[in-house]
Amino acid sequence: MNLHKKYRKRIILGITPIILTGLFLLWQSEIAKERQVPIGPFQIADNLYYVGTTNVSSFLLTGPEGHVLIDGNYPETAPMIIESITKLGFNITDVKVLVNSHAHSDHAGGLAELKETSGAELWASTGDADVLESGGREDLSFGPLRFLHFIGLGSFPPVQVDHRFEDGDTLKVGPLELTAHVTAGHTPGCTSWSFPIKDEDRELLALNICSLTMMPFTSLTKPESYSGIREDFEQSFKTLKDLPVDVFLASHTGWFNLRHKMKEQTSTDKPVTPFIDPEGYRKFIEREENHFLEVLKDQSLK
Ligand SMILES: [Zn+2]
């Protein structure tokens, strides 16, 4: 009888993680589907267009000597991005450079297909380049859930990086000029991109925030998720707070309230007006920093 109970306990202990992993995978795949619903495409400002989904952003910055595409979205979303670019009247083969906010499947998944179709170069930060080239398998930010990459979750088609950059480097395509701000922490090479935008006779600074989110198993204290993660987050908040941002953009649409701003566009003669939101930018960073400080305090007390 006792022996029977012992085996039953072992079977339950063995099966439980499998069931939990299965439920987690199902939940993740449902989230991924919801996040891939198309929205737009539409113009945000002068030469800036939104070509992403309801949840995950992709931006097209157009120029006379070629375009720059920011973020590749999910692997399954690449055809939708290509279609959106065509709908706007541009040609995918005129995209000369692809850049990425960070090497997670929802932002980097479509890069391989987009690169192949456009023939563009891929620029990536030194901190995330190896993860892009490994299709996510070199990613440390999933902590103990990293094994999920080996069964397909969180991994994505590997993509070759043509140019590796550091914090503060600039990317130029004709008159287009983008500055890379490595705002690390979410991933070691998480990159926020800033670029000027024309609004009639004045110039606005647009910035696409990479991410300031901590993953479920992020450890800011020893053993850290990766060496220096706490300092990276602290520096990222400082970098972003110091930038005089006018047009607030981010890699997830909810962070900069895309749907609300889209609606507001209908009641203005200039599409960029609702997107000029330095206050929303400041509040978002403040909220994320407060959360970071709470997590740091909790983890330091353990
Ligand atoms: Zn991410």
Q: What does the average pLDDT come to? A: 91
Number of helices: 8
Structural class designation: alpha/beta
CATH class of the largest domain: Alpha Beta
CATH topology of the largest domain: Metallo-beta-lactamase, Chain A
* Rg calc: 21 Å
Number of strands: 12
List segments where confidence is low: pLDDT < 50 over at least 5 consecutive residues. Answer: none
- Sum up the overall morphology in one term: globular
List each distinct ligand once: zinc ion
Give the tally of structural domains.
2
Strand fraction band? 15-25%
Describe this structure in words.
It is a single chain. This protein has 302 residues and is an alpha/beta fold. The protein folds into two domains: 1-35; 38-301, Metallo-beta-lactamase, Chain A. Helices cover 36% and strands 20% of the residues. The protein has eight helices and twelve strands. The strands form two sheets. The protein has a seven-stranded mixed beta sheet with strand order 1-2-3-4-5-6-7. The chain has a five-stranded mixed beta sheet with strand order 8-9-10-11-12. Strand 6, helix 5 and strand 7 (163-165) form a beta-alpha-beta unit. Helix 6 (229-242) packs antiparallel against helix 8. The longest helix has 34 residues, at 2-35. The protein starts with a helix and ends with a helix. The mean pLDDT is 91. Zinc ion is lined by residues 102, 104, 186, 211.
